Amino acid sequence: MTPRQGEWSLVGEGARQRIRERILPLARIVSALGLSADTLTVAGFVVSFTAALLCVAGLWLPAGLTVVAGALFDLFDGAVARVRGTVSAFGGFLDSTFDRLGEAAIYVGCVAGALGPGAANMAFPSIAGRSGAEVVAVLAAAALAGSQMVSYTRARAQGIGLEAAVGIAPRPERIGLLTVGLVLQPFVGWALGGALAIIVILTLITVGQRVRHVRRLAGSTG
Amino acid sequence: MTPRQGEWSLVGEGARQRIRERILPLARIVSALGLSADTLTVAGFVVSFTAALLCVAGLWLPAGLTVVAGALFDLFDGAVARVRGTVSAFGGFLDSTFDRLGEAAIYVGCVAGALGPGAANMAFPSIAGRSGAEVVAVLAAAALAGSQMVSYTRARAQGIGLEAAVGIAPRPERIGLLTVGLVLQPFVGWALGGALAIIVILTLITVGQRVRHVRRLAGSTG
Q1: Is the CB of A108 less than 8 angstroms away from the CB of B138?
Q2: CA B70 to CA B84: how far, in whole Å?
Q3: Does domain B13-221 correspond to CATH entry 3.10.180.10?
């Protein structure tokens, strides 16, 4: 049985497809403005990097809203490439690479923010002599590791001709969780730490799901 | 022109080839002991994870030596697969995934270690209100991001049929730099921070090299 893309994901493939259809008219407008898909890819990274700098400054709420803005760019670059008929292997590669660079920058920003002014209202359990904010910094690094590994397993599987876009925590879900944590942090002292802890757990499960999935596919084709 | 694997790398392909040949006799012994390549892959990850825990405890020198031990496992699993004739696409996938999981764990360990007992003898410049040890923690997160991105770009390029194993900071070089930083840290207060800063710079350059390389390859085949 070939599993469909997005299987076991928090946001189903049907919902993804509907979102893709709804943004097509907007993508046509963006395209008519003369913006190329690659330009949008780089612009999306710049927005994500801005979110990372806001994290460094401990401005969690503005950072969270900026993460959402970056995610919107991310929706559009692929749609614009389709509208303009400029879909290319390199465009997809550039898009994937900058998306993950932007995501990584945000997590590094969380590490720096939790070790600076962003620690001000943090209420998170202290563990093994580390303060609550320091624990959040470690969780941000672990969430970065887990997120990158989820993306890596899929890309590495594609390299051997297998599709491993399965698992409960692909990028849209991770970004959603992170946004909730960032936006709520000024009001709920454990929000960011809680969101990061959930991301760590879900991404490790996803890596396990993908390894199992690739083993099954490799076994059935070999 | 098809670039050879390892081009612009700190350790040339010739040296890699010689290492591979030299470990073959040892790989035969390991293989005769009944150890499979996949077992060695998982064992190597366990060793790297142990190094990560030593980092968390701030035991930098033992951590560095354990990283070297993990790297040795990493050399052997591929060689044992060749000797046993069990080279498989899934084995390569599992090896790559566990190698990067182990590397990621070590960087997360560095973040936690720098925010705990490992900060004891750290002498690193304080930046923007963060202590020297906190700066080292942020650098460890950034080095994690850069390292994962280097691996991601190669895997993602393979997914579109292109070989992007170029650049100055593939995994053996990164692990080497990290080991030097860890081993020297008890004696030189800025060693780990310095090594991590170099890894951040080299990995970002490598990501740039790989993106440029893929653009050139994609342009010439499209």
Answers
A1: yes
A2: 21
A3: no
pLDDT (tens digit per residue) in A186-208 = 999 999 999 999 999 999 999 99
Backbone CA torsion sign across B170, B176, B182, B184: negative
Question: Which of B126, B147, B156 would you mutate first to test chain A, the one with the most A CBs within 10 A?
Answer: B156
Q: Where are the domains of chain B?
A: 13-221
d(CA A14, CA B162): 31
Does the annotation mark B99 as catalytic?
Answer: yes
Residues of A in contact with B167 (CB under 8 A): none
A119 by Cβ neighbours in 10 Å (0-12 / 13-18 / 19+) ranks as: middle
Summarised one tens digit per residue, pLDDT across range B63-73 is 999 999 998 88
B23/chain A closest Cα distance in angstroms: 26
* pTM recorded for the entire structure: 0.92
For residues A148-175, average pLDDT: 94
ipTM: 0.92
